[in-house]
């Protein structure tokens, strides 16, 4: 078992990311604020980004834990890793405007392009294949990954919960970048970062959120996912 | 907690399926044989279907456990629930030919339309949206569901394993049919059947297998999925 564990433990030999600054674009939304809270609580330096610095600063002050707020461009410039948690509607425009600020950075796209109607949620079909592939197309000088799709914003923001019982599927082309994002996910108690393929396989990971929404309705749950045998 | 459990336990109030006959089209392939083995071991009556009765009978004899073999049409006719585990290549042709035999039956599509190249697996895009939606289009008189996508054929067939550590996402439009398939999944020790949406959200469930293949390569694993908080 011990030799097997050393192979399969996804936290094995991941880099130390504790000194990296994490920016969260869309950090005033539920998902972004929840991630910022969990990462800051784990000891990470976090900057929340929004269209206006004032709004970001107000959200950051509410969160405490040393979280700072800034406009999106400043957030991108001052961060080592930048999580993109903006609404799908604003995804392309936000990223296009930040191409220079995001150059050389690890970008973590966690956007789920979904539509909603009377029957619930359904997958949208981005022209590039997925939100993550759109990010990669718009940010050719960044190291684009995809992760943090399947987290419940409710659970992330629930201060009474010490741990979040879920794995984080991490996708990307660049091993060093995906290792870094896996390590970042593992900073949050209860979470593991699990490598789950290249960006061309991001669409199904993003749109699986539609299924988790169905699970949540049926079972009155805040569903997450664990990858077994890893 | 107890009232909450009664809501969230996916096995709650599911029908008794122990007397239903389960047919497995493509039952001589790895996935089909593995499912037939697990269901028969759980006490279910199972018929393996193949293009030729001889081949199905040979596979059934190898499995033992009372499993019978027959051609696909006979299998469909004699079963209450029919699992479709044929290769994607033969999916449309096989189902088109069985429209009459499958009328009124619960059909469980577990086919994953994937392509493979040097970089691994990737999602194909069926014209109907997914294999399950193709099945629904070809079988208007059947009750089509989708399930059993994320199971490792290796683990299913490993007789040394008493339990399979995974949940089974079950999709469909017809509550009675999805409840029945959830109950069938729960017959296999370790598994739960979890309702996970309508057939229009089947594509991402089917193609997520491409990601699990990446997980398996990276971690030398046979990955499955658990839905948390359910």
From TrEMBL, chains A, B:
InterPro entries found in the cross-reference section: NAD(P)-bd_dom_sf, NpdG, P5C_Rdtase_cat_N, STEAP_metalloreductase
Pfam families: F420_oxidored
Keywords: Oxidoreductase
Superkingdom, natural source: Bacteria
UniProt entry tagged with the keyword Oxidoreductase: yes
Domain Pyrroline-5-carboxylate reductase catalytic N-terminal: residue ranges: 22-113
PANTHER family from the UniProt entry: DUDULIN-RELATED, F420-DEPENDENT NADP REDUCTASE
NCBIfam families, sorted: npdG
Protein name as catalogued: NADPH-dependent F420 reductase
């Amino acid at each position: 078992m011990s030799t097997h564990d050393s192979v399969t433990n996804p936290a094995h030999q991941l880099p130390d990311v504790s000194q990296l600054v994490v920016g969260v674009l869309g950090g005033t939304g539920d998902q972004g604020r929840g991630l910022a809270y969990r990462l800051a609580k784990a000891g990470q330096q976090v900057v929340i980004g929004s269209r206006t610095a004032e709004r970001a600063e107000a959200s950051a002050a509410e969160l405490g834990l040393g979280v700072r707020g800034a406009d999106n461009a400043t957030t991108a410039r001052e961060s080592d890793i930048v999580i993109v948690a903006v609404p799908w509607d604003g995804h392309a425009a936000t990223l296009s405007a930040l191409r220079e600020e995001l150059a050389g950075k690890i970008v973590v796209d966690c956007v789920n392009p979904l539509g909603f109607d009377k029957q619930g949620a359904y997958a949208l079909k981005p022209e590039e294949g997925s939100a993550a592939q759109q990010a990669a197309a718009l940010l050719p000088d960044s190291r684009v990954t995809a992760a943090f799709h399947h987290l419940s914003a409710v659970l992330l923001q629930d201060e009474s919960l010490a741990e979040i019982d879920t794995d984080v599927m991490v996708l990307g082309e660049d091993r060093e970048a995906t290792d870094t994002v896996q390590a970042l996910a593992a900073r949050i108690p209860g979470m593991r970062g699990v490598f789950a393929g290249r960006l061309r396989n991001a669409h199904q990971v993003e749109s699986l959120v539609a299924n988790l929404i169905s699970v949540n309705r049926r079972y009155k749950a805040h569903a997450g996912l664990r990858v077994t045998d890893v």
